[in-house]
Design brief:
The structure is a homodimer of 154-residue chains. With 154 residues, the first copy, chain A, is mostly helical. Chain A is 61% helix and 6% strand. Chain A binds a DNA duplex (30 and 30 nucleotides) through helix 1, helix 2 and helix 4. Chains A, B: This is Transcriptional regulator.
Chain lengths: 154, 154
DNA sequence: TACTGATAGTCAGCATACTGATCAATATCC
DNA sequence: GGATATTGATCAGTATGCTGACTATCAGTA
């Protein structure tokens, strides 16, 4: 029988497990307390000021129920703000605070370092190839999870 | 600035997210209720009858605190048994029940189908290459997470 | 305008995963 | 042999992620 440890699903979990551990270690070494999800959300809010939570979720492929808690914690840390939208009273408009902007700026080297470390076993060429194959596999499976990547609405 | 969605860490999370969704869907279609973690644990117990929880955790690279809960649920579903060890009274010896054995046998096609689906965007050759690169990256990063893969003790 | 359906956000509940602590039992070392 | 260190398992606490349900609101239409 095929070794369980050699299945694609298992390898996916292991790589993700290492990626998260490396991210948290690098960020903590740099003196910050931010998870991968929180970083992705914060960076995406900064790039799209005033966007609502559902759009944010789509842009980074998270479930909207997860985003609620992530934003809670970003707000609680003083890095983001959640305001009622004037156009649609159901929606919340998200903004990065000055403190959030400062954090994003200072944390970038740690984030980039983490990306290098998680690929440290591969040559530059192999790293590129791994990313290409992951992108291709993900594109084909995008609609298979509850939280597919979506473009921002017009 | 580099697009956040194009970082290795993000791709890792997305691929893992899709892999889990596909696994759960295929297994549910086959009439079973088992998570990827539960499946991996059950299959590994079957292949190593009587092993303790720490060894199990090392064999599939899970944190031992996570394993406690996973075994709780396997026991509660009647698929595994947890007995006090006679050699070491701190340890628990794990066994698969007849029901667990039956489940493993019947669930295999769904698990294999899930592995194919999560790679459906890639050619056979590309799928092999993706797995090779993941294995290589994982091997280099094995010690970077709290739950590295470990061989069984002698 | 009243009805219907869709959408934004939240919540309860469950299952990973992690950190750090604790307890009981075993190993090791002097 | 007895102090010390280590180890197996669990627990409390926190943060993803998911399903399914619910409320409030919006949009389209008869």
């Amino acid at each position: 029988m095929k070794d369980n440890n050699d299945m694609p699903g298992h390898l996916a979990r292991r790589f993700q497990q290492i990626a998260v551990a490396v991210f948290l270690a690098e960020v903590e070494d740099a003196g910050f307390d931010l998870t991968p999800v929180q970083y992705a959300a914060l960076a995406t809010i900064k790039a799209n000021p005033g966007l609502d939570q559902v759009t944010l979720a789509g842009l980074i492929a998270y479930d909207r129920t997860t985003i609620t808690g992530v934003i809670d914690r970003l707000v609680q840390k003083g890095l983001a703000e959640r305001r009622a939208s004037s156009r649609d009273r159901r929606a919340r408009e998200l903004e990065v605070t000055d403190e959030g902007r400062r954090t994003l700026r200072k944390i970038t080297p740690a984030v980039e370092s983490a990306q290098r470390i998680m690929l440290r076993g591969l040559s530059a060429k192999e790293g590129e190839e791994l990313m290409r194959l992951l992108r291709k596999a993900i594109a084909a499976g995008n609609d298979l999870s509850r939280a597919p990547l979506r473009d921002a609405p017009v």
